[in-house]
Design goal:
Nucleotidyltransferase, domain 5; 19 helices; 6-stranded mixed β-sheet
Length: 525
Amino acid sequence: MEGLFAGLDVSTQSCKLVVIDLESQSNVFVDAVNYDTDLPNYRTKNGVIQGQPEGVSESDPDMWIEALHRVFEQLKSSDVPVGQILGISVSGQQHGLVSLDAEGNLTRQRSKLWNDFSTLEECDLLTDRIGGLDAMVREVGNSQRTGYTAAKIYHLARHEPEVYRKTATLFLVHNYINWFLTGGKNGGIRVMEPGDTSGMALWNPETGKWSESVMNAISPDLKDKIPPVKPSDKSIGRISNELVQKYGFSPECKIDAGCGDNMYGAVGTGNVIPGLVTISLGTSGTAYTYMESPFVDPTGEIAAFCDSTGHYLPLLCVSNLANGYNEILRIHSLSHADFNLLMQETAPGNEGRLLIPWYMGERTPDVPQATPVYFGFGLDDFEKAVLCRAVLEGHILNLYDGFRRMPVVPKEVRVTGGLSKSEAWCQTIADVFEAQVVPVEGEGAAQGAAVHAAWVCLNESGQACSLESVASPFVILDESRRRKPIEKNVVIHKKQKELFAALSTRIRGKSGGDPFSLRDQMIRS
């Protein structure tokens, strides 16, 4: 099938549109709207409304729709033949909650986002009502976390009961965008799909069913407010007549089921076969892998997600990653190149100095009220090079400490995000994860969405094909920056990983190894 396919990524900070051409195997259009700078009337910072109480992170869903119109206007003004776009798929920031009434009006003008930590009490209440962590994991395959959607719904029902009563449909972000694309108030389609839905902590990815117990613990009528779940690998309808007339889309242009940004990040990095691990190095950090069977972590630390293909995507997410790095660059007026040079002044392992980088609470481990911990620092150690290495290793060790629960030995780690351009970051990830690391170029989740749209349309037209075959030409690995583990560093980091795990465990009030003894062993070896 010749033709063009589009992917939208409605992320926390921006809305990106990518259009791919299957025949030339290339991107023919890329554009983005930054909410903070391009839509200043919403008064956001990093896409989040300012002036909210501590722990609250919310955005106006109208902002996402306005951004969508902006990128469509840019597309219309380009030389891309919009009428030849055969399919569109939407990647959305996971877990955000959007509420609509029966007529399609927002019942709450702000959407709680994935990084909203104001629902800790609701998480605890739900877990207690279901019978504890083990019972909750049996019900929904996950623990209840502030990032997930169930606690956001419960918070709405508890604290804004009139808004909850008026609500007819509770959406995730990408479902809301799909509803708009297929008509919005004029017949927009209200459905969900397993990938993003599996991150709600209401729907069990292993059984493929909603948990009646958790739903009833929130509200007996919740099941009436949740749209039906349709397959991830199918289209849900066609683009609306309004968008056809306004921007020149073909009335035959399909809207596929869409998915969460992590699921489409996997597609965009070619992580659609076993053995690959993708690490996204953004404000938060994620690590995930493709699996053909579900994996449920009894602790709930590894998210039991479905992917966008009908299979599974166990995922680790840490709330803190680029934040510590970006801040130390700012404080010391460092460039990325300066940081790489500083790493040559200190040795891997940082002579037993360690940072637990929980600057903004932490999602994995689940400690929303956490603060950072500097361990093993002497009176003369708080100098630039030592602190920079502590930040680098602390963030990567924090990511690895959660990842070690994941049932995969990576053949290769593919890294994305701004920090993937850093030699120091890539080499340290290779040494800590004990695997080759290669950055992936491209447009991330938006490109993954465009590839998914092409795959769905091809299969629905009778041209059976694998997602891997469609994605492969668009996955560009930067071989010049591929890094292999350095054996002497691997030996050091093995001990450092043990120290990090012991310290993380101890400061959370759990039993574990003696951090002081482990540090002593590390610096003596």
